[in-house]
Specification:
By secondary structure, the chain is an alpha/beta fold. It is about 25% helix and about 25% strand. The protein has one domain (about 1-375): Ribonuclease Z/Hydroxyacylglutathione hydrolase-like (Metallo-beta-lactamase, Chain A, 4-Layer Sandwich), CATH 3.60.15.10. It has helices at about 50-60, 80, 85-90, 115-135, 230-240, 255-260, 275-285, 315-320, 330-335, 360-375, and strands spanning about 10, 20-25, 30-35, 35, 60, 65-70, 90-100, 140-145, 165, 170-175, 175, 180, 185-190, 205-215, 220-225, 250-255, 265, 275, 285-295, 325-330, 340-345, 350-355. The strands form 4 sheets. Strands 1, 2, 3, 5, 6, 7, 8, 9, 21 and 22 form a 10-stranded mixed β-sheet that branches. It has a 7-stranded mixed β-sheet with strand order 10-13-14-15-16-19-20. A two-stranded antiparallel ribbon has the order 11-12. Strand 7 (about 90-100), helix 4 (about 115-135) and strand 8 (about 140-145) form a beta-alpha-beta unit. Helix 1 (about 50-60) packs antiparallel against helix 10 (about 360-375). The chain is globular, with a radius of gyration of 20 Å. The model is unreliable at about 385-390 (pLDDT under 50).
């Protein structure tokens, strides 16, 4: 199995404030949700894992090259796609999933970062080939579009894109990289909504419930991207309206936007943060046992002084009030003395938190050591990886 896990798993990597989740479906099928291959090094402290190096070392191989069945980009912010160009160069990716938001020609004040541009270029290549093929273009060329866009209408760039590779909210995906995996994987798409196409990137995140395991025992996770309170409530309201409440069930909730308070607090006219209890009630109601909330973030501050920058201690406190098993933070679970991801695995009888003895690959370890050495030689730690551990 990938990374030596013993069954279908969710792996949450310590990458600072950024999302990087690996979904292990089987020993030959691995799906990656977002990527933040950022190495933050200090002279003595480093709990981060150089993720592209780690994926290169531990993915299954096809034709001698590391093979990733699917890469899902929830939205094109840097902390969700940093390192994608490197990943694409070093790993064969069977299929890409994304929302049409990546296709927009940005004219606002937040242009795409280089890795998001690389993703868009590759997604467009795959989309054009899919239209030309009028069907499945094959492994390494597949792309799935999640959501709505005027770009698929008559006369637009993606007119003629095959419907079999488009998924609307309220629908399920059980085909991954051309294979029916319904006996071991299920993704239910909650967003983005049609009316959100022109909104801010965070509110057009791909939001989904992912279930892995078997008919005997399964594990479900809610992955909601960087949505805030209004979009979260829209997800719940739409799901209830269509009698799909079971598609909200979770054993694992990835706290939106690196445990931002904006998912459950709104600011009133006086500038004070007011708790929206309905959000907490909605999040708690579908929780299964065991239930874990995971914050993909750096360590939490000791108080609520983090301002507009997550992770927020207020949000953590609210999650700790509703979670039935545990709250886990990637930046606290991994330490310089024990560098490791959070791994939740489903067996035939249980859901387990594992990985105490996780061993990072030699390539990732070399990159980590090189970054620490580089940090010792200058005042500021490096914001990107140095060139070690490459294949």
């Amino acid at each position: 199995m990938f990374a030596d896990v013993e069954g279908p798993s969710f792996i949450f990597w310590p990458v600072g404030n950024g999302d990087s989740t690996t979904v292990v479906i089987s020993d030959q099928e691995v799906l990656q949700i977002d990527l933040n291959d950022l190495l933050m090094a200090e002279e003595e402290d480093n709990e981060h894992i150089p993720l592209v190096d780690e994926l290169v070392a531990k993915l299954p191989r096809r034709n001698g090259k590391p093979y990733l069945s699917c890469f899902v980009l929830t939205h094109p912010d840097k902390d969700h796609c940093r390192g994608f160009a490197d990943l694409l160069k070093r790993v064969q990716i069977g299929e890409l999933w994304h929302s049409p938001h990546i296709f927009r020609e940005y004219e606002d004040q937040q242009p795409l970062c280089p890795d998001a541009e690389a993703f868009r270029k590759e997604a467009r290549r795959r989309a054009a080939l899919t239209i030309q093929t009028r069907g499945d273009p094959g492994a390494g060329h597949r792309v799935r579009i999640i959501g709505y866009s005027a770009l698929f209408e008559q006369g637009q760039r993606y007119h003629g894109f095959p419907d079999q590779f488009r998924t609307r909210p309220g629908s399920s995906i059980v085909i991954v990289d051309g294979v029916n995996v319904s006996d071991r994987f299920h993704a239910f798409i909650h967003g983005p909504f049609k009316e959100g196409v022109a909104d801010a990137r965070n509110e057009t995140s791909v939001a989904m419930q992912v279930t892995v395991g078997s008919a005997r025992k399964a594990m479900s996770g809610l992955f909601l991207g960087d949505v805030s309170y209004p979009t979260l409530m829209q997800i719940f309201q739409q799901t209830h309206a269509h009698n799909n409440d079971h598609r909200l069930a979770w054993n694992v909730l990835l706290a939106p936007h690196h445990c931002s308070k904006k998912v459950m607090y709104e600011r009133n006219d006086s500038g004070q943060d007011v708790l929206c209890q309905d959000a907490m009630d909605e999040l708690e109601a579908p929780q299964l046992t065991p239930g874990y909330v995971v914050s993909s973030s750096k360590e939490f501050p000791g108080n609520n002084s983090s301002g507009d920058n997550p992770p927020h201690r207020k949000a953590r406190s609210r999650y700790e009030e509703i979670v039935n098993t545990g709250f886990l933070c990637t930046g606290e679970f991994s330490t310089p003395e024990n560098v490791r991801p959070i791994i939740l695995t489903v067996t035939d009888s249980d859901i387990l938190l594992v990985g105490d003895d996780y061993e990072i690959s030699e390539g990732a370890r070399a990159t980590l050591a090189a970054a620490i050495d580089a940090a010792r030689g200058r005042a500021a730690p490096p914001a990107a990886k140095v060139g070690f551990g490459r294949e």
